[in-house]
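@channel sequence for tomorrow's demo:
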Amino acid sequence: MNVVTRKPLNFSKARRRSGFEARVLDASAARVHQQHGERKATVLGGFTGTVVEVGAGTGANMRYYPSGIHLIAIEPNPHMHDRLRGQAEKYSIDMEIRTLRGEQIDVADRIADAVVATLVLCGVDDPRQVVAEVKRVLKPGGTFFFLEHVAAPAGSMTRRVQAIVKRPHRWAFNGCEVDRNTAAVLANAGFSQIDIVEVDTGRSGMYARHQIIGTATA
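C-alpha cells (generated this afternoon):
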C-alpha cells in the first residue's frame, strides 16, 4: 500500500478551529454510519479504478471502499491527515493526500472513475465551483456520490432555528452552512443523470436533520 502526502498549503485563521473540527468528525462518524452506512457501502463498495474524495476528513468513508482502488484524498485541513492515513492503512486503501481546497483540485481532466463528497458542499466557499471541478475530473459515465445536510422546509421550526444558529455554526465548523439549497446546485451542474433522496434524520440531527444523499452521472 502506498500513502503519499503532498506539501501542505498556508492556511487562514480557520486553522485555529481545524483540530476541533477533526475531533467532531471522529465523534459523529458512528452516527453517520448508522444513518447512511448501508447506502454508502452499496455505492462506494462497487467503485473501481481511481476515486477522488473531496473533503476526505478523518477517513470516515474508508470502511466502504474496496481495497483495489487508488484513492486521491483532497483534504485541506492538515489536522485530519494522521487520522486519514490511519484509516487508509486499517482498510488497506492505496491513498495519496493532496492538501487542497475543493474549488481547485490538482487532478487531470477525466481521470476519476468516481468522485465522493460527503458533508462537504455545505462548508466550501463556492459549492458551484466545487461541483464543476467534480464534473471536470470525472470520466464520461463516472459516478459522483454525495451526502449533504441542507435547508429545512420553508416555514418550518427547523428552518427558523437554522437562521438563528447559522453564524455561530459557521464559525465553529470552518464555514459550514446547514441551510444551502445543494440540490439546486447539483441539478444545474449539467450531469447526465441525478438520483437524489431527501432524508430527515429526526431529532438526533437537530437543526441539521435535513439531508440529501445520492449519485450523479457525468
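heads up for whoever presents: Residues 1-16 have pLDDT under 50 and may be disordered.
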